[in-house]
C-alpha cells in the first residue's frame, strides 16, 4: 500500500487507543550568550552525540561573528564521528583545534562554503577520517602547512573518499598519495588543473584507488604511468584539453568505465569512439594499435605481446586470480541516494513525548527488491493496528489481546517462553504511553517494537519498502541493526535475481507481514535487473521544530568489511 505523503511522524500513543490520529556576572552572561548562539553544541554535548550537522540561514551570521571560523567550542566534542557544515558563505577556514579536538572523526563534510584560497592551519592529522568532502569552495592550492595534512607520517592514513570538486585548484599537492595512501575515490571535477602530479601514478602510490574523476578541468596530458593504478575501475576525464590517450591505459587490469568525451583527440577515429562506444571497445582499440598518436601499426606484435604479459602480471600482483578475489558478477551492489538528489524525500518527525519510550529511531527507503521468486518473501519476513491481519483496535486492548495470545500459545506448545512478536511485549511493561508511527493521513502504520499495520502489508509484488528501527538503548544499535537488515536484503535480492527463471510465483500464503510497502516511483537506478544495485534512500529524522536529529544512511553507515559488498555513494 502507498504511504500518501512525504512526512511521517513518530509520536506517543495514549494507552487508550491507537488514534489517527564585567565581573562574574559578566562572565556568566558571556557564556550564556555563546551557549545561546550555538544551541546545537549544547545538545550534542548533553546527549553525547556522534553526529552533528550545522546548516541553515542563521549559520552564516554566527560564523561571521566567530571570525569566519567554526566556534572553538565545537572542537571540545571528542565523541563526534560525523561533522557536516554546509552552505555557509562566511566560513573561510575551519579554524585551529580541529585535529586535536576531534580525534575520532570518521566523516568531515565542509561543502558549499567559502574555504580558500588554502586551509590554514592544515586539516590533519586526522587518524580515523575516512570521508572528506571539501566540494564547492574557493580552494586554489593546498601547499604544505595549508593543505590536507602531513605526508610523513601520513596525516590521513585511513581516508577512503576525497571530494575536491567545484573549487579553483590549479594543482594538486605533490604528496597527496603519501598523505592519504588508502584513498579509493578521488573527485577533482570542475577545477583548473592542467596536469596530475607525477607522484600520483608512481608504482604502489595509491594501490586502492578505484575511482578517479577530473572532468571539466584543463588537463593537457595523461601520463602513461596511469597504468600503475592497479585497482582503477572508473576514470572520467571528460571536457578537458587532452589530445592523446596513452596506450598504457589499456593495461589497467580492472578498468571498467572510461569517459573522454569533450576532448579533441588527434586520432579522429578514437575521438568518435569515445563519444559513442563502450569502454571495452575503446580499450580493445588501444590494445590493437590505436593510441590517439597514430603509430599503432608500427609497433608490431612483439610490443603487443609484451603489453599482454604486463597486464597478466598486474592481475596476479593485484590479487585478481580466480582464488583471490570475488568475481565482479557476484558482488552485492548498494547505491545510496542522498537527500539532495531525491525528489521523493521522506522525513520523520519525532514528538518529544516519545523520548521516554523509544527515543532512538532510524529509517531508510529501499527500492528494487524482488520478492516474487520462490520463498524470497518468507526469507525476508519472520513476523510482523488495523494491526497486521486484525481489525482496528485500541492500543490498550491490542496489548492485552497479544498477552492472552502469548500465554495461550505457550501453553499449547508446552514451552517455557513465548515466541514470535509476543516475545517483545515486555518492552512496554509499565509504560504510560505507547510509541507509534503515523503517516501523512494520520493512520497508525507501526506500533514499535511490536507490529506493523495492515495498511502497509508487504506482498510478493512489493519492490519498494520503508524500513524503520527503534531502540530504547542507543542510536548506534538502531544503525547496526539497519546495516545488517539491508545487507540481508541485498543478499536475498541477489539470490532471487540469479534464480528468477527457476523460481515459482505460486505461493499466495507468503503474502504475510513485516515492514512497510511503498508505491514504486521513478527512482534513478531502481529498475530490477541483474546488474542494478538496490537503491537505499536517505531518511531524515527531525524534531518538532524541524531540527535534524539523524540522517540514515550517513557516510559512516553501511561500512561493510565484507569483500562481496560494494556501496556506491
Structure characterization notes:
The longest helix has 24 residues, at 475-498. The two termini are 29 Å apart. This protein has 11 helices and 21 strands. The strands form 2 sheets. Strands 1, 11, 12, 13, 14, 15, 16, 17, 18, 19, 20 and 21 form a 12-stranded mixed β-sheet that branches. The protein has a 9-stranded parallel β-sheet with strand order 2-3-4-5-6-7-8-9-10. With 569 residues, the protein is an alpha/beta fold. Strand 2 (51-54), helix 3 (59-65) and strand 3 form a beta-alpha-beta unit. Among the domains are: 40-288, Leucine-rich repeat, LRR (right-handed beta-alpha superhelix) (Alpha-Beta Horseshoe), CATH 3.80.10; 331-370 and 463-498 and 531-568, no CATH class.
List the total number of helices. Answer: 11
Strand content: 15-25%
Question: The biggest beta sheet, please?
Answer: 12 strands, mixed
CATH class bucket of one domain: Alpha Beta
Q: Could you list the spans in which at least 5 consecutive residues all have pLDDT below 50? A: 1-5, 12-35, 291-300, 320-329, 386-390, 501-514, 520-531
CATH architecture title of one domain: Alpha-Beta Horseshoe
CATH fold topology of one domain: Leucine-rich repeat, LRR (right-handed beta-alpha superhelix)
Q: Write down the overall mean pLDDT.
A: 76
Number of E strands: 21
Q: Tell me the CATH superfamily of one domain.
A: Ribonuclease Inhibitor
> Nearest-angstrom radius of gyration?
27 Å
Distance between the termini: 29 Å
Structural class: alpha/beta
Overall body shape? globular
Give the proportion of residues in helices: 10-25%
Amino acid at each position: 500500500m502507498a504511504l500518501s505523503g512525504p512526512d511521517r511522524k513518530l509520536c506517543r500513543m495514549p494507552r487508550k487507543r491507537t488514534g489517527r490520529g564585567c565581573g562574574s556576572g559578566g562572565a556568566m552572561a558571556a557564556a550564556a550568550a555563546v551557549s545561546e548562539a550555538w544551541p546545537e553544541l549544547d545538545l550534542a554535548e548533553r546527549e553525547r552525540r556522534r553526529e552533528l550537522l550545522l546548516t541553515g540561514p542563521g549559520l552564516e551570521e554566527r560564523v561571521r561573528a566567530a571570525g569566519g571560523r567554526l566556534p572553538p567550542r565545537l572542537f571540545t566534542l571528542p565523541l563526534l564521528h560525523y561533522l557536516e557544515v554546509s552552505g555557509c558563505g562566511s566560513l573561510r577556514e575551519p579554524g585551529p583545534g580541529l585535529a586535536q579536538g576531534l580525534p575520532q572523526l570518521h566523516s568531515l563534510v565542509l561543502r558549499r562554503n567559502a574555504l580558500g584560497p588554502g586551509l590554514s592551519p592544515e586539516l590533519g592529522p586526522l587518524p580515523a577520517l575516512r570521508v572528506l568532502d571539501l566540494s564547492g569552495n574557493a580552494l586554489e592550492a593546498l601547499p604544505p602547512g595549508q593543505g590536507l595534512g602531513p605526508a610523513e607520517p601520513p596525516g590521513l592514513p585511513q581516508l577512503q573518499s576525497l571530494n575536491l570538486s567545484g573549487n579553483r585548484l590549479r594543482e594538486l599537492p605533490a604528496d597527496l598519495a603519501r598523505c592519504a595512501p588508502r584513498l579509493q575515490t578521488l573527485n577533482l571535477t570542475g577545477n583548473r588543473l592542467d596536469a596530475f602530479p607525477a607522484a600520483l601514478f608512481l608504482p604502489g602510490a595509491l594501490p586502492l584507488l578505484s575511482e578517479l574523476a577530473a572532468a571539466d578541468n584543463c588537463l593537457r596530458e595523461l601520463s602513461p604511468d596511469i597504468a600503475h593504478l592497479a585497482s582503477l575501475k572508473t576514470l572520467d576525464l571528460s571536457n578537458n584539453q587532452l589530445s592523446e590517450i596513452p596506450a598504457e591505459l589499456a593495461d589497467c587490469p580492472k578498468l571498467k568505465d572510461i569517459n573522454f568525451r569533450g576532448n579533441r583527440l588527434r586520432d579522429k577515429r578514437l575521438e568518435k569512439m569515445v563519444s559513442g562506444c563502450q569502454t571495452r571497445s575503446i580499450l580493445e582499440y588501444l590494445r590493437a594499435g590505436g593510441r590517439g598518436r597514430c603509430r599503432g601499426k608500427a609497433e608490431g606484435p612483439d610490443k603487443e605481446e609484451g603489453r599482454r604479459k604486463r597486464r597478466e602480471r598486474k592481475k596476479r600482483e593485484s590479487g585478481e586470480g580466480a582464488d583471490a578475489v570475488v568475481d565482479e558478477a557476484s558482488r552485492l551492489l548498494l547505491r545510496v541516494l542522498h537527500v539532495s538528489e531525491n525528489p521523493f524525500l521522506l522525513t520523520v518527525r519525532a514528538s518529544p513525548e516519545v523520548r521516554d519510550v523509544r527515543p532512538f529511531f532510524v529509517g531508510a527507503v529501499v527500492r528494487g527488491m524482488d520478492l516474487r521468486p520462490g520463498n524470497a518473501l518468507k526469507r525476508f519476513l519472520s513476523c510482523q493496528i488495523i494491526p497486521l491481519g486484525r481489525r482496528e483496535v485500541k492500543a490498550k486492548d491490542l496489548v492485552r489481546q497479544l498477552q492472552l495470545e502469548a500465554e495461550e500459545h505457550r501453553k499449547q506448545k508446552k514451552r517455557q517462553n513465548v515466541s514470535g512478536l509476543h516475545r517483545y511485549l515486555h518492552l512496554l511493561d509499565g509504560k504510560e504511553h505507547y510509541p507509534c508511527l503515523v503517516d501523512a493521513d494520520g493512520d497508525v502504520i507501526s506500533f514499535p517494537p511490536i507490529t506493523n499495520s495492515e495498511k502497509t502489508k508487504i506482498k510478493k509484488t512489493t519492490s519498494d519498502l520503508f524500513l524503520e528501527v527503534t531502540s530504547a538503548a542507543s542510536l548506534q544499535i538502531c544503525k547496526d541493526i539497519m546495516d545488517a537488515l539491508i545487507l540481508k536484503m541485498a543478499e536475498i535480492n541477489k539470490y532471487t535475481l540469479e534464480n528468477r527463471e527457476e523460481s515459482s510465483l505460486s505461493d499466495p500464503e507468503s503474502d504475510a507481514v513485516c515492514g512497510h510497502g511503498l508505491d514504486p516511483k521513478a527512482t534513478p537506478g531502481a529498475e530490477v535487473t541483474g546488474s542494478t544495485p538496490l537503491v537505499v534512500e536517505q531518511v531524515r529524522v527531525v524534531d518538532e521544530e524541524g531540527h535534524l536529529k539523524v540522517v540514515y544512511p550517513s557516510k559512516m553507515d553501511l561500512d561493510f568489511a565484507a569483500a562481496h559488498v560494494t556501496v556506491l555513494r
